[in-house]
Design a protein that fits this description.
By secondary structure, chain A is of the alpha/beta class. Helices cover 41% and strands 19% of the residues of chain A. The chains are: A alpha/beta, B alpha/beta.
C-alpha cells in the first residue's frame, strides 16, 4: 500500500463530498485513521486517479455502500477481553437483574459479535427473557449480517477460549450449529435483539438504558466528537446505569466524568 | 559501517521488531542517555495476553519515562511509548496518537508497517526508523515509505539477529541509511541527540 497517494487536502475534499451527497459526516473522525482507510480502499479497488475515485464515491450509490462498509472498521470478536466479560457477568448484570426489565444499547455493534456475547451471558444468568438489546450501527449492511447471527467457523476456537476465560459455564458449542464454514447461533439469542441503523455523529438519543456498550468505536473519533458522543450516552443512561468502553478508551478529560464511578479495573463506569 | 548523520535533527525514533527483538531492546535500553530529546516508539509483535509485560521490562531498564501508548496522547520528547498489543498505532499531524483495531497487516496487529508509514508522513526527514530481528516481512514496506519521504531507515545486521528473516528482507528491498550490529545500536541512538 503506497501510503501517500492521497494527501490530506484530498481526504477533506472527499469527506466533504460524502457529507453533501450522502449525508454522512466523517469530518470529525481521527484524520490519520480515516485517511488510512481511504487509501486502503483506493488501493483495493484499483483506482488510477483521485479524480476517478472522487467521482465514483460522489455519484455511484451502489459504490457508496461499499465505501461506507470499508471506511468504517468492522473488525470485532466474541467475548473480546475476557476479563471485561467476567466483570459484566459478576459485577454489572447481577445488579441489573434486580430490575423488572433490562434495556441495553450496543452502539456501533458492527456484525453483532458483542451483542451475541452479551445475550449468552444474560441467558446464563437467567435474565435474557426480561432483557432487550438494541444493537445499532451506522452501516446497514453489517446489521444485515448481525441479524443472521452467523460467524465464520474458523474464529470459533478463539471465541470458545475467550468465553471460558470470561467465566462461561457451558460447552460453547451448545450455542451454535456448524453449517459448512459458518456457525449459526441459537435463535433464542437474537429473539431479544432489535437491530437498527444509528449514526453516533448525527442521530439523537432514542431511549433510556441501564447499560450502554460501545467498544472500540470512539478510538476512531477526534476528541471533540468523543465528548459529543459521551454527552449523547449521558442523556441515554438512567441514573445508576452503566457505560462500557473498549480497553484503550476512557471517560477521562470529559467534563462530566466525575459524575461517573469506575467499576473495579475494567473500562466500565456507573452513573451516580 | 558508521555513516555521518546529516544536519537534519531527529524528531522521532520508531523501533519495530518481532521474534528475537526483545533481547536487542533489553541491550539498548540500559545504555540510552537520560536526556534524549525525541520521543521513542516501540512496535513489537506479541500475544495480546502479555499486556504490560513488555512495558514493565523496559521500564526497569531505563531512567526514561516508559508507558503504553494511550489514544490521543501526545508524543513528547524523552518518553518511550509502547504500542499496545492488538492495536495498530498511527500518528496524527498534531503528533497525537490514534489507535486502530482494524484488520491485521502482515498477520500482525500492531503492524510495524502501519506505524512506520504513518510516522513518515508526519515527521518526513526528521524521522529515524529501526527494524530489528523477526521472522516475517512486516516493516519492509514501512521502511520504503520512510526512505521515500526523506527519513532514515536503519536495519539490524541480520547476522546479529536471532531471527534474521525480517532484517534480511529489509536489506534486500530497501536502501538502508545504515546497517547496525545490535551492540552498536544504543550508541547510534544516543548520537541522534547531538
Amino acid at each position: 500500500m503506497i501510503s501517500d497517494v492521497i494527501d490530506n487536502e484530498q481526504v477533506e475534499i472527499l469527506l466533504n463530498d460524502v457529507l453533501e451527497n450522502h449525508g454522512y459526516d466523517f469530518l470529525e473522525y481521527s484524520p490519520a485513521s480515516i485517511k488510512r482507510r481511504i487509501i486502503r480502499l483506493y488501493g483495493l479497488d484499483n483506482f488510477v486517479s483521485f479524480a476517478e475515485f472522487r467521482y465514483t464515491v460522489k455519484t455511484d450509490k451502489q459504490y457508496f455502500k461499499r465505501f461506507l462498509e470499508e471506511i468504517t472498521v468492522n473488525v470485532t470478536e466474541m467475548f473480546r477481553d475476557p476479563s471485561f466479560y467476567k466483570s459484566l457477568r459478576n459485577d454489572v448484570l447481577p445488579v441489573l437483574g434486580t430490575y423488572p426489565f433490562i434495556r441495553i444499547w450496543v452502539a456501533g455493534c458492527s456484525t453483532g459479535e458483542e451483542a451475541y456475547s452479551l445475550a449468552i451471558v444474560l441467558k446464563e444468568l437467567n435474565l435474557l427473557h426480561k432483557s432487550l438489546i438494541y444493537a445499532t450501527d451506522i452501516n446497514p449492511s453489517v446489521l444485515e449480517k448481525a441479524k443472521k447471527g452467523m460467524f465464520p467457523l474458523t474464529y470459533l476456537k478463539q471465541y470458545s477460549e475467550n468465553y471460558l476465560q470470561s467465566g462461561g459455564l457451558k460447552d460453547f458449542s451448545a450455542y451454535y450449529t456448524a453449517n459448512y464454514s459458518l456457525a449459526k447461533f441459537d435463535e433464542s439469542l437474537n429473539s431479544k435483539m432489535i437491530f437498527s441503523t444509528h449514526n453516533l455523529v448525527s442521530d439523537h438519543s432514542f431511549n433510556e438504558f441501564q447499560l450502554i456498550l460501545c467498544r472500540n468505536v470512539l478510538i476512531y473519533f477526534d476528541k471533540g466528537l468523543q465528548h459529543k458522543v459521551f454527552n449523547l450516552f449521558d442523556s441515554s443512561i438512567e441514573k445508576l446505569g452503566y457505560l462500557a468502553l473498549g480497553s484503550k478508551e476512557s471517560l477521562e478529560f470529559w467534563p462530566k466524568a466525575r459524575e461517573y464511578k469506575r467499576v473495579k479495573m475494567e473500562k466500565i463506569w456507573r452513573k451516580l | 559501517m558508521a555513516q555521518t548523520i546529516g544536519s537534519t535533527s531527529c524528531e522521532a525514533l520508531i523501533i519495530g521488531g518481532s521474534a528475537g527483538s526483545l533481547d536487542v531492546l533489553l541491550e539498548i535500553f540500559p545504555a540510552l542517555r537520560s536526556d534524549i530529546r525525541f520521543p521513542i516508539v516501540i512496535v513489537v509483535h506479541r500475544k495480546p495476553s502479555n499486556e504490560s509485560l513488555l512495558t514493565d521490562l523496559l521500564k526497569s531498564r531505563t531512567t526514561l519515562a516508559v508507558g503504553e501508548a494511550d489514544e490521543k496522547e501526545f508524543l513528547i520528547p524523552g518518553k518511550v511509548f509502547i504500542v499496545p498489543a492488538d492495536y495498530h498505532m498511527l500518528i496524527e499531524e498534531d503528533r497525537s496518537i490514534s489507535l486502530d483495531y482494524s484488520e491485521k497487516v502482515n498477520y500482525s496487529r500492531p503492524s510495524i508497517d502501519v506505524t512506520f508509514q504513518s510516522a513518515a508522513e508526519v515527521f518526513k526527514d526528521k524521522l529515524v526508523c529501526i527494524l530489528l530481528s523477526g521472522s516475517n516481512s512486516d516493516g519492509v514496506e514501512g521502511l520504503k515509505c520512510v526512505n521515500r519521504l526523506g527519513g532514515r531507515a536503519v536495519i539490524q545486521n541480520p547476522n546479529t539477529a536471532i531471527m534474521p528473516y525480517m532484517p534480511q528482507q529489509a536489506v534486500i528491498n530497501v536502501k538502508p541509511h545504515v546497517i547496525l550490529d545490535s551492540h552498536d545500536m544504543a550508541q547510534y541512538i544516543n548520537k541522534l541527540n547531538d
